[in-house]
Amino acid sequence: MLQTVISVDPLTESNCYILAEDKKCVVIDPGESEQLPGILGERGWEPELILLTHEHCDHMAGLDALRETYPQARFAASKVCNDGIQNTRLNMSRIMEVYLYFRGKPGIHYDPIVCRPADEIIEENAQLPWRGHTLRLVPLPGHTPGSAGIFLDEKIFFSGDYLIPDEEPLLRFPGGDSDSYRKITEPFLRSLPAGIRICPGHGEPFDLQKK
Amino acid sequence: MTNLEKYDKAFIRLFKVKKEDLPKMKYMGDKKWDSMAHMDLMSDLEEIFDIQISTVDVLDFTDYNKGKIVLGRYGVEI
What ipTM was assigned to the predicted interfaces of this complex? Predict the structure, then answer.
């Protein structure tokens, strides 16, 4: 039976989602490296697959530490996302200190980071079978070039930094693109069915209501 | 292109203003120059001049003219 745990990074308030089946798990957006090992260790869960909703550092800062601890885990990403995680401007780590200051968290030291390349480059709209489930990626440019939504069995949607409760999508970071958002991502998000479980990159999951 | 031309070009591209408006521009003094735009501007200037601006200096970069002084700390003479 599928189990889900959310780990929230207290600094950036980003969500890391862990989906587990038979002690093996998928990790979506390992944004920090302090809480995650404990969560996995306590439960005896071993990551098999790591995915990102996008390349920003608050969603992947714990990626390399996770891969060090679990070298068998496969990190799969699209080429554009993979390029982004290796660029301190596109992954936002270069300006994270300033961003945290503007978000009311001054005085935080945040070193620019890059991550090792993905173990596997996948298509932007890849479908990945995993332990009787299907993870389907949908490219959703706008917030970042490599942003993607991830469906789990078409019932749960990991939306990254879209559909965050009470927040408009941020399209003005380096690599942000309001045109792509308007033409591709916004129509897609509007097409999501009512009732689908939304798991955003920040904030609480919720069931989508249609207006 | 001179450093001043590169500097001005960054502002003009980002804020879509005319060159004659630049000397008056201040962070948060204009609704276009908000925190998001500030981060964007810093990012652009870092790339244009191949420098890394510290957080302290990012926060000290409060207007168009002060910005020239800040960049001077990184060897960029404008």
Answer: 0.84
